[in-house]
Amino acid sequence: FRLHGSTAEEPHILLECDSSILDSIQKHLKLYKIRRKVTITPCPDLSLWAVIPGEQPGHASSLPKCADQALLLTPDPRAEVMGWRLIAKKGANLSEIIPGSQVGDVQDYHRHRYKQGIPEGVKDLPPGVALPLESNLAFMNGISFTKGCYIGQELTARTHHMGVIRKRLLPVRFPEPLPAAGVPEGAEILTPAGKRAGRFRAGGGELGIALLRLAHLSEPLCIRLGGDTVKLSASTPEWWPKAAAK
Questions:
Q1: pTM (2 decimals)?
Q2: Which domains are assigned to the chain?
Q3: What are the residue boundaries of the CAF17 C-terminal domain, all occurrences included (predicted)?
């Protein structure tokens, strides 16, 4: 997020990241700043909130465009269904920033994004494993096809323009109660014929996200856990571009 108001100001950019890899992200950024006069530092005095839209018509228009206590209140850049990102000082009164709002917990947030198939953090997007196009980042303002060179640019651009992406991250649902231990991350997903359809990435309760071959999208799917077989189904998010699942 750009925090400076005009081009005359020194640029200030606020990055949101998975807190579990804060140290490694700082090391990575410092490695590439070369001799630029750039200061990279965490902001422990700030808190991040996801403002999830309600189901009533007109809810979006009732959100205040700015609030005195908020450092930042802006639409989530990934997808409209994710609502807004709110960044404020720790201890700020949320009911004053967004009147009529209800404070949920982090699991409410994760359930919402799993329903929408929105990946986030190193569990959903494991470093060195997740490919940007298979992770749907082109749908979420996560890839530029016009900027200069970056690692993997040639392969990413060629795959995008050819339009052949055989696997994608998809929201999945388990119709039956799960075993007490849950479904392990990386568990293999199979078709009824035993073909490999993909892998489970992460989830909570009956919802999750998985990397699946689109050819098996409409088939019954399952995960074998020990002697048990756990059924699941996948779907295409409504916010995707129309031709994305083809």
A1: 0.86
A2: 21-54+61-104 (no CATH), 132-234 (2.40.30.160)
A3: 166-242
